[in-house]
Specification:
This protein is mainly alpha-helical. It is built from 13 helices and 2 strands, in the order H-H-H-H-H-H-H-H-H-H-E-E-H-H-H. The longest helix has 29 residues. The radius of gyration is 21 Å and the shape is globular. Bound molecules: Phenylacetyl coenzyme A. Phenylacetyl coenzyme A binds next to helix 2, helix 6 and helix 9.
């Protein structure tokens, strides 16, 4: 135990200042952040798949260019986050192995299929929207590299949400078939998007400690509520409805009440039994194998450059 290190860590946290990679930190802090940041990175990378599947089917050149840029942004987010995680002392190939071997989680939402073009709208609006609501407070996370990565990621996510909203707006104001397709996509994505915020507070083992460490600033339920309050008005502006009969304004609380979510489904999806878990992991493994030559070439080039510098 490092008493001076612990005292310094406690002071930094109590001043709401930042822990940097070379600072002493408790092993549990390092472990929990490595868990959260790496799972966040995995989510970004796996999260490319539902939308990447639609790039070849985008309805116009412009839509295709926007969607490609968006999916590439998600890859970039994964890379910033793996880099932030590595500063905590675990190598990226080990983090990647944890994902490939099923030892690490990624967000439940990406185990649902993207069935129609309207899903590109619903994903942008609801999934990126939930991601922003969850991640804006993480810009102030006590771990410096994570918070700084979040700032840039949130800016890009704002563009993503806006492009999704615009896809839905066009469809909602299009033909009756298009409007129906938009509504159907929202109906399917709504509840899984609310579950992105994690289990209810009463069932969230990490929340309390993460809040004491200034990693999380709000609880899962607080952020979920904030998101619901936000999207109700946005749905009205879209001319679409949210699929929850219990959704109604609660004057006393100053928030919208919403219906119970299916937490059994959530657990089952996280346990690997969602509609697309197998497909997503298979695709990731294949992509990793197909990228082996790139990693080998990069390593050979690095060795050659290092040898030349030493000579
Ligand atoms: N899915 O005690 P808590 C994106 C796990 S956004 C799967 O509440 P914590 C952008 C949790 O890891 C999506 N697992 O945990 C994009 C823990 O398991 P563990 C990614 C979940 O950490 C958009 C256990 O349950 N965003 O990718 C989920 O305090 C479009 C107990 O939970 C982030 O990762 C879930 N939904 O709170 C990309 C944000 N919820 O580790 C492409 C950063 C919980 O003990 C296209 N992360 N679990 O095995 C966080 O804010 C937090 O980690 C939470 C969970 C809020 C996700």
């Amino acid at each position: 135990e490092d008493l001076a290190g612990q005292a310094n860590f406690d002071r930094i946290i109590s001043e709401d200042s930042r822990i940097e990679p070379r600072d002493w930190m408790p092993a549990a802090y390092r472990k929990s952040l490595t868990r959260q940041v790496s799972q966040h990175a995995h989510s970004e990378i796996i999260g490319m798949q539902p939308e990447a599947n639609w790039i070849t089917r985008a309805p116009s050149l412009k839509r295709k260019a926007i969607l490609m840029a968006k999916v590439q942004d998600e890859a970039g987010h994964g890379l910033y986050l793996y880099s932030a995680a590595e500063t905590l002392g675990t190598r990226r190939d080990e983090l990647n192995n944890q994902l490939l071997e099923g030892r690490a989680k990624y967000s439940s939402i990406f185990n649902y299929p993207a069935r129609t073009w309207a899903d590109m709208g619903a994903i942008g609006w609801l999934v990126d929207g939930a991601a922003i609501a969850n991640q804006v407070p993480l810009c102030r996370a006590s771990y410096g590299p994570y918070g700084r990565a979040m700032v840039r990621i949130c800016k890009e996510e704002s563009f993503h949400q806006r492009q999704g909203w615009e896809i839905l707006y066009e469809l909602s104001n299009g033909t009756p078939e298009q409007k129906k397709m938009a509504q159907d996509a929202v109906n399917r994505m709504y509840a899984p998007a609310l579950q992105m915020f994690g289990p209810p507070d009463s069932d969230s083992p990490h929340s309390q400690q993460s809040m004491k460490w200034n990693v999380k600033r709000f609880s899962n339920d607080e952020l979920r509520q904030r998101f619901v309050d936000m999207i109700v008005v946005q749905a009205e502006a879209l001319g679409l409805t949210l699929p929850d009969p219990d959704l109604k304004w609660n004057e006393e609380r100053g928030h919208y009440d919403y219906g119970q979510l299916d937490w059994e489904e959530f657990s089952s999806v996280i346990a690997g039994n969602g509609p697309c878990n197998t497909q997503r992991m298979q695709r990731r493994r294949t992509a990793h194998e197909e990228g082996a030559w790139v990693r080998e070439a990069a390593a050979a080039y690095a060795a050659k450059t290092a040898a030349a510098a030493a000579a």
